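Researcher: Next sequence.
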Amino acid sequence: MTSFGPAAFQLVLLRRMADFQPDLADEARRRLGASLADQREANKRWQAMVRSPRSRGALTRYRSVLGPPESTGHRAIGDLECEALQWPLPLWPDLRFEVLAAPDGAVWNEWLVRAPGARGPVLDSPDDLLPWSATVDEVARAFAPVRPMEGTAPTRWRLAFTARGRPCVAEFTYGLLQRVTTTQDVSARPASPA
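Model: Next structure:
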């Protein structure tokens, strides 16, 4: 890969998703026509851009790698105003890579969201939560109220919620669902014999 564009950027996303879903990530990498060596090189180049002392900032980096955004708009998050920029990525045609930026250009958030007008999944039970099927926002709406939890890395999010009486934790990488774990409610377990 000579230039770093959308294909290489998708390989970077897949590298983090492979921690949870190696088979899905490997299949997607092959659809991009990339080898594991290509993926390692893309990640190496991305990390060099992120850590470069000459870096012009995350928002400029996204624009240079992904090109002009498909859409931009203003969004209020509580009392804060930000700019929302979205780019299409071929691996996920129904999603957009969204960057939320402060007025000074600092990037607050970067993740995959459902594309405007695209139909999201029907989420009625934990069984509907299949890997790569839903975004953070979709799971939060379907199973409200949810409790955000700290992720295990900057590109990861977790939501705790109860669905059909079962406590669940959904884990996301770059905003895309990776896995859901369910635990039996401790208070519902029968007491152990004395």
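Model: The helical segments are 6-17, 22-31, 36-51, 58-66, 136-142. The longest strand covers residues 80-88.
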